[in-house]
Structures are given as C-alpha cells and as structure tokens.
Amino acid sequence: MSSSSKGTGESPVPQGERGRFIVVDGVDGCGKTTQAELLARALGVRDGLHLREPGSTTLGEKLRELLLSRSFEIGPAVETLLFAAARRQMLDQVVEPALARGESVVCERFNPSTFAYQAVAGQLDEEQVVKLLSTWSNTPRPDLVVVLDIDVELAARRRGVASDRIEAKGVEFQRSVAQGFRRYVERFTEAVLIDGSGDADEVHQAVLGEARRVGA
Fold first, then answer.
1. Quick check: helix, strand or coil at residue 26?
2. I want to staple 129 with a disulfide (CB 3.0 to 4.6 A). Which of 40, 105, 119, 203 is the partner?
3. Pairing state of beta strands 3-4 and 191-195?
4. What is the DSSP-derived secondary structure letter of residue 7?
5. Residue 160, Cα to own-chain centre: how many angstroms?
6. Selection from 25, 24, 90, 11 nearest residue 55 by Cα
7. How far apart are CA 109 and CA 115, in angstroms?
8. Helical H runs in the chain?
9. CA distances from 41 to 34, 38, 98, 154, 162 (A)
C-alpha cells in the first residue's frame, strides 16, 4: 500500500490547540464511508462530528435530497452553487465551532467532489469553480484531504445498483470524475492520493498515517 503525501469542552481553547479537519473523498463506491468511520473511531471523533456532505445540517440534508433526487434535471452549474451553499452552512454551523473547541472533524466529501464531478466531468470552467469554492466554501480549510483512488469498474461493483441521480450517470462519467480527483490532488497541497483498492484495514492504516502526519 502506498500513498503520495504532500475531552470536549464548550469554551474556546488556547490558540494553537484547534481541532483537525480531515476530508475523505473519491468516486462513488471507493469506500469513503467505511474509511471515514474507521478514521473517526481511531481519532476519537465524537459521533456528531463525523459528517457527510452535502448534509450534516438541516439545510444541508434538504439540499442533499434535492441534488440526488431523480425527479429533477439539474445542470453542473446549478449543482455547484447548491453544493457550495450546503457546504457553507456546514462549515459555519458545525465545523468552525467544533475546531474552535479543540475537537476534530472527519467529513465525507468536500471541495474535491465539486471540482471532480461538476468542473471536470461536468465540463465547467475549472478556474471559475475553484475561485467560487475558495471564496465561499473553504473556510475553515481542511488540514488534510484524502482522495481514495480506485478503478471505477471495481468501485461500481462494490457500490452495486446506482441509488441516486449522480451515480446513475454511468461508468464513463465516473472515469472523468476519477481524473478530476487526480487533478485536484496535483493542484492542492493539503490533498493526498491513497490507493483504495486494498482491504479496508490496509487502506485505513494508510489513511491514519496521513492523519497522524498533520497532527490528528
């Protein structure tokens, strides 16, 4: 397995003792939920701070229902704006307060997904998407972004029948998404690529090693 690197209180903690914000991301079926759960457990992250995105707030969950529903035709540009809105709400309502208390956060999906799915696979202007995300949905910025890299056919077999509108776009779309994730890792220093094709414990050890590297 190889990877490429680059007690709870309610009052604010002393400067320098903020929690760590770690994202686990990748194509549908890559194993991100399993790895996020294993990482959260290993780091002692409390249940309410293992997040999914979009979601994890009342507004975010409503936007998630809308974005994944097969009842609507939603283009990549509108998807980008809705994902960014859900993310901003999560950052303001959940992530920043937790980090300020010294608690760490593990989140499934973040800006890499929007870059990969909407900018690259959705053929939007990549620089415009990066600018929007950097301006509106990147504060606080993750300390670490783990992208699980896996063959999209293997990911599809692991995932099974597509369960939502975006999963249903097919294998060719997912190939473009996977390429988008790799490009994201090349662009952003907090992002690392980890081989997600091994067994769960093997992948977990690689993910945990990266988390320890950033002080989690």
1. strand
2. 119
3. antiparallel
4. -
5. 21
6. 90
7. 11
8. 32-43, 58-68, 76-90, 96-100, 111-113, 126-136, 152-159, 171-187, 200-213
9. 11, 5, 17, 26, 28
Q: Which two tokens stand for residue 189?
A: 């220093």
Residues 126-172 pLDDT 10s = 999 999 999 999 999 999 999 999 999 999 888 888 778 888 888 89
What integer pLDDT is reported at residue 202 of this predicted model? 97
Distance CA 216, CA 212 (A): 5
Amino acid at 105: V
Q: Give CA–CA dist 37/121, Å, rounded.
A: 27
Which tops the pLDDT comparison, 17 or 131?
Answer: 131
What CA–CA distances, in Å, run from 168 to 14, 173, 183?
47, 9, 23
Euclidean distance between CA atoms 59 and 12, whole angstroms: 26
Determine how many CB atoms are found less than 10 A away from the CB of residue 68.
16
